[in-house]
Design brief:
The chain is mainly α. The protein has helices at 29-47, 57-82, 94-127, 136-155, and strands spanning 5-10, 13-18. It has a single domain, classed as Neurotransmitter-gated ion-channel transmembrane domain (Methane Monooxygenase Hydroxylase, Chain G, domain 1, Up-down Bundle). The longest helix has 34 residues, at 94-127. The N and C termini lie far apart (58 Å).
Length: 156
Protein backbone atom coordinates (compact mmCIF):
# COMPACT_ATOMS: atom_id res chain seq x y z
CA UNK A 1 0.00 0.00 0.00
CA UNK A 2 1.29 3.49 -0.87
CA UNK A 3 2.34 5.69 2.02
CA UNK A 4 0.03 8.51 0.87
CA UNK A 5 -3.03 6.24 0.72
CA UNK A 6 -4.35 5.57 4.19
CA UNK A 7 -7.40 3.59 5.20
CA UNK A 8 -10.46 5.60 6.18
CA UNK A 9 -12.63 3.64 8.60
CA UNK A 10 -16.38 4.14 8.64
CA UNK A 11 -19.28 1.97 9.82
CA UNK A 12 -19.62 0.21 6.47
CA UNK A 13 -15.94 -0.69 6.21
CA UNK A 14 -12.46 0.63 5.50
CA UNK A 15 -11.85 2.61 2.30
CA UNK A 16 -8.58 3.91 0.87
CA UNK A 17 -8.17 7.64 1.20
CA UNK A 18 -5.61 9.93 -0.40
CA UNK A 19 -4.15 12.50 1.99
CA UNK A 20 -2.18 15.54 0.83
CA UNK A 21 -0.73 18.11 3.19
CA UNK A 22 0.10 21.55 1.83
CA UNK A 23 2.04 24.18 3.74
CA UNK A 24 1.16 27.61 2.36
CA UNK A 25 2.95 30.75 3.40
CA UNK A 26 2.21 34.38 2.54
CA UNK A 27 4.76 37.16 2.43
CA UNK A 28 3.16 40.17 4.15
CA UNK A 29 5.97 42.57 3.21
CA UNK A 30 4.12 43.95 0.19
CA UNK A 31 0.98 44.78 2.17
CA UNK A 32 2.97 46.31 5.01
CA UNK A 33 4.91 48.61 2.69
CA UNK A 34 2.00 49.53 0.41
CA UNK A 35 -0.98 49.70 2.80
CA UNK A 36 -0.09 49.49 6.50
CA UNK A 37 2.87 51.87 6.70
CA UNK A 38 1.33 54.71 4.60
CA UNK A 39 -1.96 54.48 6.48
CA UNK A 40 -0.17 54.73 9.84
CA UNK A 41 1.69 57.79 8.56
CA UNK A 42 -1.59 59.37 7.39
CA UNK A 43 -3.25 58.77 10.77
CA UNK A 44 -0.23 60.15 12.63
CA UNK A 45 -0.15 63.27 10.46
CA UNK A 46 -3.87 63.83 10.87
CA UNK A 47 -3.59 63.64 14.64
CA UNK A 48 -0.57 65.94 14.55
CA UNK A 49 -2.97 68.75 13.64
CA UNK A 50 -3.83 68.88 17.35
CA UNK A 51 -0.39 70.36 17.98
CA UNK A 52 -0.99 73.31 15.65
CA UNK A 53 -2.00 76.41 17.66
CA UNK A 54 -5.70 77.23 17.65
CA UNK A 55 -5.04 80.72 16.30
CA UNK A 56 -4.03 79.11 12.97
CA UNK A 57 -7.38 77.67 11.90
CA UNK A 58 -6.47 77.42 8.22
CA UNK A 59 -3.45 75.24 8.98
CA UNK A 60 -5.44 73.01 11.33
CA UNK A 61 -8.21 72.45 8.81
CA UNK A 62 -5.80 72.04 5.91
CA UNK A 63 -3.87 69.27 7.62
CA UNK A 64 -6.99 67.46 8.79
CA UNK A 65 -8.78 67.78 5.45
CA UNK A 66 -5.75 66.74 3.40
CA UNK A 67 -5.20 63.67 5.54
CA UNK A 68 -8.92 62.81 5.32
CA UNK A 69 -8.80 62.95 1.55
CA UNK A 70 -5.59 60.90 1.49
CA UNK A 71 -7.12 58.25 3.71
CA UNK A 72 -10.29 58.20 1.60
CA UNK A 73 -8.26 57.69 -1.57
CA UNK A 74 -6.28 54.91 0.07
CA UNK A 75 -9.50 53.26 1.25
CA UNK A 76 -11.13 53.40 -2.19
CA UNK A 77 -8.10 52.44 -4.24
CA UNK A 78 -6.74 49.75 -1.92
CA UNK A 79 -8.85 47.06 -3.58
CA UNK A 80 -8.78 48.39 -7.13
CA UNK A 81 -5.09 49.23 -7.52
CA UNK A 82 -3.05 47.92 -4.60
CA UNK A 83 -4.68 44.48 -4.37
CA UNK A 84 -6.24 43.68 -7.76
CA UNK A 85 -6.60 40.00 -6.85
CA UNK A 86 -9.22 41.04 -4.26
CA UNK A 87 -11.14 43.33 -6.61
CA UNK A 88 -14.02 40.92 -7.14
CA UNK A 89 -14.16 39.57 -3.58
CA UNK A 90 -17.56 40.00 -2.01
CA UNK A 91 -16.38 39.53 1.56
CA UNK A 92 -14.63 41.85 3.99
CA UNK A 93 -10.89 41.35 4.27
CA UNK A 94 -8.45 42.41 6.96
CA UNK A 95 -7.19 45.09 4.58
CA UNK A 96 -10.71 46.56 4.38
CA UNK A 97 -11.02 46.63 8.16
CA UNK A 98 -7.58 48.22 8.50
CA UNK A 99 -8.16 50.97 5.93
CA UNK A 100 -11.68 51.56 7.24
CA UNK A 101 -10.49 51.97 10.82
CA UNK A 102 -7.72 54.32 9.69
CA UNK A 103 -10.31 56.35 7.79
CA UNK A 104 -12.46 56.46 10.93
CA UNK A 105 -9.57 57.78 13.03
CA UNK A 106 -8.74 60.43 10.44
CA UNK A 107 -12.37 61.53 10.12
CA UNK A 108 -12.62 61.79 13.92
CA UNK A 109 -9.61 64.10 13.85
CA UNK A 110 -11.24 66.17 11.09
CA UNK A 111 -14.53 66.48 12.98
CA UNK A 112 -12.68 67.47 16.15
CA UNK A 113 -10.70 70.12 14.26
CA UNK A 114 -13.90 71.46 12.67
CA UNK A 115 -15.48 71.85 16.09
CA UNK A 116 -12.39 73.54 17.53
CA UNK A 117 -12.02 75.93 14.59
CA UNK A 118 -15.71 76.82 14.47
CA UNK A 119 -15.71 77.60 18.21
CA UNK A 120 -12.55 79.67 17.83
CA UNK A 121 -13.98 81.63 14.90
CA UNK A 122 -17.24 82.10 16.75
CA UNK A 123 -15.38 83.51 19.77
CA UNK A 124 -13.33 85.79 17.52
CA UNK A 125 -16.43 87.11 15.76
CA UNK A 126 -18.40 87.53 18.97
CA UNK A 127 -15.68 89.83 20.29
CA UNK A 128 -16.31 92.24 17.40
CA UNK A 129 -20.11 91.66 17.58
CA UNK A 130 -20.50 90.09 14.16
CA UNK A 131 -22.30 86.76 14.20
CA UNK A 132 -20.60 83.94 12.31
CA UNK A 133 -22.39 80.74 11.39
CA UNK A 134 -20.89 77.99 13.52
CA UNK A 135 -21.33 75.38 10.80
CA UNK A 136 -19.41 77.31 8.12
CA UNK A 137 -16.19 75.20 8.31
CA UNK A 138 -18.28 72.03 8.40
CA UNK A 139 -20.21 73.05 5.28
CA UNK A 140 -16.93 73.88 3.55
CA UNK A 141 -15.42 70.48 4.42
CA UNK A 142 -18.54 68.61 3.31
CA UNK A 143 -18.59 70.49 0.00
CA UNK A 144 -14.91 69.70 -0.64
CA UNK A 145 -15.38 66.01 0.26
CA UNK A 146 -18.47 65.77 -1.98
CA UNK A 147 -16.61 67.32 -4.91
CA UNK A 148 -13.65 65.00 -4.37
CA UNK A 149 -15.83 61.87 -4.15
CA UNK A 150 -17.65 62.86 -7.35
CA UNK A 151 -14.27 63.31 -9.04
CA UNK A 152 -13.10 59.86 -7.84
CA UNK A 153 -16.21 58.13 -9.17
CA UNK A 154 -15.67 59.75 -12.56
CA UNK A 155 -12.04 58.57 -12.61
CA UNK A 156 -12.70 55.00 -11.42
Amino acid sequence: MCEFVKPFNVLSGAYPCLEIRLALKRDPGHYIMVIAFPSVVIVALSWSSFFVPVNLPTAKLSIALLMSLSSLVMNILSRAVLAPELKGASYVTVMDVWTGSCLLFVLCALITQLIVVSRYLYQQQSQVHKPLPVAMPLRMAIRILYTFICFLYKVI
